[in-house]
Amino acid sequence: MPAAVPLPVGVPPTGAGPSPKASPRPARRRAATAAVVLAAVCALAVAVLLSLAIGARQIAPSVVFDAVFHGGGGEDGEVVRDLRVPRTLIGLMVGAALALSGTVLQGLTRNPIADPGILGISQGASAGVVLAIAFAGIHSLLGYIWFALIGAALATVAVYAVAHSSRGGATPVKLALAGAAISALLASVTTGVLATRSATLDEFRFWQVGAIAGRDAEVVTRIWPFLLLGAVLAISVARGLDALALGEDMAKGLGRNVAAVRIVGGAGATLLAGAAVAVAGPLAFIGLAVPHMARRLVGSAHGRVMLLGALIGPVMLLGADVVGRIVFPPGEIPAGVMTALIGVPFLVALVRRKEVPA
């Protein structure tokens, strides 16, 4: 009988199963991710229920369910259906949009403190609204949406054009610098118009503070196509952003078209942030904080971060909105104020933990 030929160390015999040490880690990671996502879904369900039930008029959960699913509930049911359901839907859509946009922008610029303001998106939307009020005679939220979207898109194109026209192309540093320059320019234009037109200032300040109250179902029907398209574009570049995180040269070596990733991702982020800002105003810190929270929980893969961020973002926005309703009843603090109050401690903690590179 011939002697058995020894196999190299670490190579299992023919027919042997996989090494017992090879599979547990990915399995544990998938199980942990599934548990986190399930917890986020539960938190989102609670946030939605609180948003529908809590306000100047407290409504029992049983009445909320009856109003939403059976059209009953009397006067309380009408409050839920006509006022709080549109408000909650706006919170869901805007929170998810800002979280996805922030995730994409942080991946594109490889900048951990990037948010929808990094490419001038928020300032572009603000300038569009101010010009619409001052010179186009637009005085309704539905009218603001189009001008805010156009302003956000033009600002993003201008930032990319400035960065791309320089030697070496649109690198992350150049994108950030161009975004800061365009944002400063648009902010000065906005301030100049507001300083000379007091009536415009009175109307603009209610939009600028950031809120999801006072929006009706028609607003939802106007913005969901933009948000859907933006989400599809953002999700489509998730693997490209994973490759880009390794460096531009490495991404090209892996076969990724870096320019296409930046264009498609930038377009998706602009649609998401532009539509969100157009409807709710420039809400602070959601696009910055939520991606970091998601990475801490599920790792750095952009697909998982986008999935969890799309759940955490609405939880954060709806939670801030609910807290704003109950702090000084019967009055309300706008959600934009509350998100800033929540975001500042988070940013301080982020710096103290040295998660932002020097």
Q: Summarize model confidence as the mean pLDDT.
A: 84
Q: Strand percentage, roughly?
A: under 5%
Largest sheet: none
CATH architecture: Orthogonal Bundle
**Uncertain stretches of 5 or more adjacent residues:** 7-12
Overall geometry comes to globular
Quickly give the structural class. mainly alpha
Taken in chain order, the helices and strands follow as HHHHHHHHHHHHHH
Radius of gyration: 23 Å
Number of helices: 14
Find the CATH superfamily. Answer: ABC transporter involved in vitamin B12 uptake, BtuC
User: In total, how many beta strands?
Assistant: 0
Residue share in helix:
over 70%
Topology:
Blueprint: H1 24-53, H2 61-70, H3 74-109, H4 121-135, H5 141-165, H6 172-196, H7 198-208, H8 217-236, H9 238-244, H10 248-253, H11 258-280, H12 286-298, H13 302-326, H14 335-352
In brief:
The chain has 358 residues and is mainly alpha-helical. It is built from 14 helices and no strands.
Could you characterize the architecture of this molecule?
It is a single chain. This protein is mainly alpha-helical and 358 residues long. It has helices spanning 24-53, 61-70, 74-109, 121-135, 141-165, 172-196, 198-208, 217-236, 238-244, 248-253, 258-280, 286-298, 302-326, 335-352. It starts with 23 loop residues before the first helix and ends in a 6-residue tail after the last helix.
Note the main attributes of this structure.
single chain, 358 residues, mainly alpha, ABC transporter involved in vitamin B12 uptake, BtuC, 14 helices, 0% strand, transmembrane helix, cell membrane
